[in-house]
Amino acid sequence: MTGTNPSFNAVHIVGAGLAGSEAAWQVARAGIPVVVHEMRPNRMTEAHRTDGLAELVCSNSFRSDDAANNAVGLLHAELRRLGSLIMSAADANQVPAGGALAVDRDGFSAAVTKALNNHPLIEIRRAEIDGLPPPEWGNVIVATGPLTSAPLAEAIRGFTGEESLAFFDAIAPIVHRDSIDMSVAWFQSRYDKVGPGGSGADYINCPMTRAQYDGFVDALLSGEKTEFKAWEINTPYFDGCLPIEVMAERGPETLRHGPMKPVGLTNAHNRSVKAYAIVQLRQDNKLARSTTWSVSRPS
Predict the structure, then answer these.
(1) Structural domain of residue 236, as residue ranges?
(2) Which of 4, 104, 164, 279 has most Cβ atoms within 10 angstroms of its Cβ?
(3) Is the same domain home to 284 and 222?
(4) Is residue 91 part of a domain?
(5) pTM (global) more than 0.85
(6) 151 and 199, same structural domain?
(7) What is the pLDDT of residues 259-298, one digit of tens each?
């Protein structure tokens, strides 16, 4: 690094989520100094809970890891060949999830944080960027995502003329393992598919009869909903990951033909009984027997 300014000729990256962390790693691997600007913990968001880099605030799944039959899995394979930090941290902290790549979210974030902190060409500055980056920064990557701080988001809107630049994903509720009746539920991956770190029996499957499913949908539609926070109002949904109540509003059969479909699963307690719908629970961290499971998309 040359000059008296320690960030001279450095690439500045605003935001240390998945994209910002990966960008910092790849730029530094190319021998170019990096300054990463992350506002947490000085300025937290409504979704983050820690100061860890690449903290997962929604699902702990990176979706399919099948490189032969799935576009997402192929992208995973390509990222691994390119020396991806995100993929190496995910592989080192994977938890069973059928054909998907899921991670222990705390271990994953800790691995990314440690790698970036220890890289000699990466400097991490914990401060909010409350406007457009100054011209003297030169090369800048803005990777702040949907949780961009309000002043920076407003500055970007003014600069680009765009009304909005992101959508919000749905949250994944957590279910405690010891609250599940395993005399009714059972372990199995859909079609017994074996994935990274898994055995082919990686999900807890909670079956429903038609009466239970109809009652669930009725209760879901009539029940109390979480109110939007100010920053969520009028934000568009991502159709690939809608909140469950929004899917249910599209028709009573929507859920059981989507995330609650019962195909590829056999009731371990009574093989002749076919479930009308099934809720699958995916392991959320490495302490599977004593801690929590996340409600999953179909495996």
Answers:
(1) 174-295
(2) 104
(3) yes
(4) no
(5) no
(6) no
(7) 999 999 999 999 999 999 999 998 888 776 544 566 766 5
- Based on the structure, what is the number of domains in the chain? 2
Residue 146: per-residue pLDDT: 82
pLDDT the model gives residue 8: 57
> What percent of the chain shows pLDDT beyond 70?
90
Distance CA 95, CA 105 (A): 10
- Token pair listed for 218: 């009725």
Q: Is 78 a domain residue?
A: no
Single-letter amino acid code for the residue at 227: E
Same domain, 152 and 184: no
Provide the 10 A C-beta neighbour count for residue 215: 12
- Tokens 């702040």 -> residue: 144
Residues comprising the chain, all counted: 299
